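Troubleshooting log. The previous structure file for this entry was overwritten by mistake, so regenerating from the original sequence record. Sequence copied from the archived sheet and checked twice against the printout by T.R.
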Amino acid sequence: MSLTRKRVLVTGGAGFLGSHLCDRLAAAGDDVLCVDNYFTGRKDNIAHLLGNPNFEALRHDVTFPLYVEVDEIYNLACPASPVHYQFDPVQTTKTSVIGAINMLGLAKRIGATILQSSTSEVYGDPTVHPQTEDYRGNVNPLGPRACYDEGKRCAETLFFDYHRQHKVRIKVARIFNTYGPRMHPNDGRVVSNFIVQALRGEDITLYGDGMQTRAFCYVEDLVDGLIRLMATGPEVTGPMNIGNPHEIPVRELAERVIDLVNAKSRIVHKPLPQDDPLQRCPDIAMAKRELGWAPAVPLEEGLRRTVAYFEALLSRSGPPMQARAGIGGPDRPGDDGFGDHAP
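Regenerated output below.
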């Protein structure tokens, strides 16, 4: 074994984003430990890795301490779609806050570098557009999304306090809407919602007038950004926006999906959920400067790959499955889109 081979812990590694990250790290020859409690993560996402000698899976909830020896930690643990994080909002906050404390404590004890998957939701319903990292946000601390928004904001505070007080080597990535294969078919995000509805010939549910904007980053590009951020020197801590700066109205996304699937679906409108942001678009000047990174996969190509995934998934399983008994409900516009990266 190479003396430079890294031991890497990925919390939430069986989720949408986490499983793709595990793929990349294992393929690079790193020794990957995937930790997940399977609240929204799925074993199917990592089944192909179980025979890989570079990969190991452990069922564990990050709200409890974990004692392992690793060189790097990617902390992706937390349900990320409104359907999932609003199902048990107290547990969502615990996962963000107590999970961050436990993983930071681990990093402190073993001297590991730790990356936090923060979110564009820390900006709330922004009054600054596009959002730069120095913008402090416009978040409702009492609303139904606060368990996620404020939990992630508190986690960022903890990361920088551990950095200042205990010299822990940290990286904080603010992830914007991400999509691609392995999204859960009922996670409440616009891309998965629209594709599943179109493939099943159902009406496309649009909240509000559909003119709210989002910027969609394909999962391969997002993972590349995270790996590049982890590889930077100790002087680069973030927070750093990772996402696609090219925004489109949500209605346009629905129309593109209908055309791509050749569906006969109609677009129907429902009221916009409370605190759903009207604009969401990253300024990625810092990522370009520090990482030499920008998204490369065009939206049309990313949507084709994602449609192909859902076509295969629905042909195998029939109607979309719930992530867990009791989770589900109305489709929602979704948030940063980095998938069901539980615990």
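The CA atoms of residues 15 and 341 lie 4 Å apart. Archived copy saved in two places this time.
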